Amino acid sequence: MKRRLVLLLLAIAPALHAASFHATVTYVTDGDTLWVRPDGGGRTIELRLLDVDAPESCQPFGAQATQALRARVLHAAVRVRTRGSDSYGRQLAHVEHRREDVGRWLVANGYAWAMRFHGRPGKHGALEEQARRERKGLWASPGALEPRLFRQRFGSCPAAR
């Protein structure tokens, strides 16, 4: 029994840590969280997109960000590159759909903020600035509140699963 458990853990470890694999999106939780089933089978894996922060589902533009991600990738084939996990047990990942980084697409179209690192613009900072200038998506209305600040002021949204 113990040996089977070790073999099972070794078999699924690549999909749980730093790994690259192809999968199908089975569910979209919100604007930066989705579930995938790896090609070849196995259990579904919850992913949190790296380098972006979409509005919370209960904050203004949260529903639009979620719907945009659903329309873009739900039931679609994607390439996943994981890099560890977060405190909620989600795998942190870059996800590509049709050779385009999904997080990049979200930021460029005004559905998410680019993550900042120590006060500096992150990987998609220039795309966020361009979306702001063009008043795309959440930038069409004044007063967009970063999800991090929204959570600090109002707490997390009730679970929608």
Automatic annotation (TrEMBL):
Ranges in a coiled coil: none
Which PROSITE patterns does the annotation name? TNASE_3 (PS50830)
Read off the SMART domains from this record. SNc (SM00318)
SUPFAM superfamilies recorded = Staphylococcal nuclease
Q: Which UniProt keywords apply?
A: Endonuclease, Hydrolase, Nuclease, Signal
N-terminal signal peptide: 1-18
Q: What name does this protein carry?
A: Thermonuclease family protein
**What is the protein's species of origin?**
Ramlibacter ginsenosidimutans
